[in-house]
Specification:
Strand order of the largest sheet: 1-2-3
Radius of gyration: 10 Å
Structural class: alpha+beta
Shape: globular
Distance between the termini: 20 Å
Number of domains: 1
Order of helices and strands: HEEE
Length: about 45
């Protein structure tokens, strides 16, 4: 799933965050709603 696709999923939900497999890195990432109505992204590096 791309970050844009994850953002669409999160926009349409009442959840505060969305965990997904980023197709560009093949790693688990977390997209979350910030208090300023934008999204934040946590993409762990190993």
């Amino acid at each position: 799933m791309t970050i844009d696709e994850a953002a669409l999923q999160l926009e349409g939900s009442k959840n505060e965050f969305f965990v997904f497999l980023d197709s560009s890195t093949e790693r688990v990432s977390v997209l979350y709603k910030r208090k300023d109505n934008h999204f934040g992204l946590i993409a762990p590096e190993f």
